[in-house]
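User: Is it possible to get a 3D structure for a protein together with its bound compound? The compound here is manganese (II) ion. I've pasted both below.
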Amino acid sequence: MSGDRLLPDEWQRGPRYGGAYTFARCPASRDLSLADVAIVGVPMDMAVLYRAGARFGPRGIRDASGQLRPHGWEPDALEAPFDKLRVVDYGDLDVFPGYIEQTMDHLTSEFKRIVGAGVIPVVLGGDHATSLPVLRALAERHGKMSLVHFDAHPDFWPGPPGRPYHHGTTFRIAVEEGLIDPAASVQIGIRGSLSANLIEEARAAGFHLLTASEFAARGVSGTLEDIGRIARAPVYVSLDIDCVDPAYAPGTGTPEVAGLTSREIVDLVRGLPAASVVGFDVVEVAPAYDQAEITALLAANLVYEFLLVLAAGRERLSRVSHKS
Ligand code: MN
Ligand code: MN
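Assistant: Yes, that's possible. Here is the predicted structure of the complex:
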C-alpha cells in the first residue's frame, strides 16, 4: 500500500496464472475507504429452477480473470481501468444454503455497507436472485433506478403466494418494491420457450423489451441508441450470461439457443452510459457446464469492460507504481 491507494505490487509479481486468486489480481481488501469499486462474489444458486452450479460462478470468473493483463499500470502503456479506479476484490459474501430469506436479508445489509461507503459494487453471481439484494441496497442510496438488463429471460414471472423468490422473479419483485422504474428500463436478448403473455406483461409494466430477434434486427448501435434514450441516471446493469448464445457461453444453468455473440455483448457493455451507472452484476455463470473456460473468460472480460466504462472520464490516479 502507498498513500491512500492499495497498490497491486505484492500481488502482481510472477506469472499471471500464479499468485492470489482475486479478480484480475486486484488487492484483496475489505477496507472500503481505499476503494472506488468493490468486486463482490455471491456464491449462491439456491434460487435456480433448472441446472444448479452458479454458486461456483465467482470462483470460475476469478480464475478466468487471471488472463486479464494489468496494462496501464505501466505509465505509458494502454489505458486500463486500474489507472483511474481503486478496485479491490472484496471476496465473497456469506450465504446460507437452504435459507434464502435469511440469505437475502444478510446480502442486503452487506451491500448497504458497501454502497453506504460510496463504493460501486461490481457483483459476481450467483444465480439471478443475486441482483435483488444489490438493488435493495442501491435503491436506499440512489432511489428508483433504471435497469439495463441483458438476459434470455425477462425474469418477470410472478412467484407463488408466500414463496416469492426464485431466479425468475427478481425484476417482478424489484418493480413491486419500487427499486426500478420499468418505464426507464431496457431488457435485451429475450428468447426461448417463453409464453407470449410474459413478454406482454413485462411490456405492459413499461419495460422496453427487445427479444433476441428484435435485437438482431436493431443491431448493437440501434440498441445502444435505445438505451441512451430510455435509461436515465441512476442506472443499474444486470447481465445474465445466458443472454449470450450457448455456443459462446455454454456454462450456465438455463441456456437458450440463438442468442447474442460474445462480440455483440462486449460492444453493448462498452457503449453503456458511463456517467450514470451505479452498479453492475454478471450472474448465472455455472462453471461445471463450461467448456475450456469460455463462459467464465467472457464474464471476466465483461467485468473488465464494465470497469473501463466506470473509468471513462475519470482522472488518472496519482500514485501508480506498479511494475509488471
Ligand atoms: Mn436471469
Ligand atoms: Mn436467463
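DSSP finds nine helices and eight strands in the chain. The first strand starts at residue 37 and ends at 42.
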